[in-house]
């Protein structure tokens, strides 16, 4: 597991390589993501976290920076059940379990899923660069609530 300082150093280096200035706001956004990384925070969660340090920052600034980070490969956008986008600082190939009730997202690392062949439709000139598998269902905590409700 990388240390927070090492991840921040890599973030700064990646921004600079892309010609993106490393502002205090961008660092605060990345730090908020790191602090909330295990829950795949939404832009709104990141916004509220960053506002504690920078009360004048706008939601639009957060969102635009997250989109820029995604374009640079610094974060990965995870869309659980077509609701709000959630962001993942772990950009290594992996997959997700998503609870349809509470929207919890759990990372899944499985070599068999990583080795899935491209679908036949890709043979018609479509070049697959990356893929993720999202499993949806009910987590252990939500199963009893749905069964009794």
Summarize the structure.
This protein is of the alpha+beta class and 149 residues long. It has helices at residues 4-17, 24-35, 43-51, 59-71, 111-114, 142-148, and strands at residues 76-78, 86-88, 95-99, 105-108, 134-137. The mean pLDDT is 86.
Main β-sheet, in a few words?
A: 3 strands, mixed
Return the structural class: alpha+beta
Identify the CATH class of the largest domain: Mainly Alpha
The CATH superfamily label of the largest domain reads Winged helix-like DNA-binding domain superfamily/Winged helix DNA-binding domain
CA(first)-CA(last) distance: 40 Å
Helix run count: 6
CATH fold-level name of the largest domain: Arc Repressor Mutant, subunit A
Report the mean per-residue pLDDT as an integer.
86
Helix content: 25-40%
Number of self-contained structural domains: 2
> Nearest-angstrom radius of gyration?
17 Å
What is the molecular shape?
A: globular
| Spans of at least 5 consecutive residues with low confidence | none
CATH architecture of the largest domain: Orthogonal Bundle
- Strand fraction band? 5-15%
Total DSSP E strands: 5
H/E topology pattern = HHHHEEEEHEH
Query: How do the strands of the widest beta sheet line up side by side?
Result: 4-3-5
Give a structural overview.
The protein has 149 residues and is α+β, with helices and mostly antiparallel strands. The protein folds into two domains: 4-82, Orthogonal Bundle (Arc Repressor Mutant, subunit A); 92-148, Dna Ligase, domain 1 (2-Layer Sandwich). The protein has six helices and five strands, in the order H-H-H-H-E-E-E-E-H-E-H. The protein has helices at residues 4-17, 24-35, 43-51, 59-71, 111-114, 142-148; strands at residues 76-78, 86-88, 95-99, 105-108, 134-137. The strands form two sheets. It has a three-stranded mixed β-sheet with strand order 4-3-5, with no helix packed on it. A hairpin with a 5-residue loop joins strand 3 and strand 4 (105-108). The longest helix has 14 residues, at 4-17. The termini are far apart. The relative contact order is 0.12. The model has no long low-confidence stretch (mean pLDDT 86).
């Amino acid at each position: 597991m990388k240390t927070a300082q090492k991840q921040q150093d890599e973030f700064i280096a990646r921004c600079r390589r892309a010609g993106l200035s490393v502002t205090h706001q961008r660092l605060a956004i990345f730090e908020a993501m790191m602090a909330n990384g295990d829950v795949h925070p939404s832009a709104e969660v990141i916004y509220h976290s960053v506002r504690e340090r920078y009360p004048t920052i706008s939601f639009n600034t957060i969102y635009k920076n997250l989109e820029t980070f995604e374009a640079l490969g610094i974060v990965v956008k995870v869309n659980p059940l077509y609701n709000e986008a959630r962001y993942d600082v772990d950009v290594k190939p992996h997959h997700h379990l998503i609870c349809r009730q509470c929207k919890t997202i759990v990372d899944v690392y499985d070599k068999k899923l990583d080795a899935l062949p491209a679908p036949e439709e890709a043979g018609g000139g479509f070049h697959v660069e990356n893929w993720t598998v999202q499993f949806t269902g009910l987590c252990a905590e939500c199963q009893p609530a749905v069964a009794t409700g």
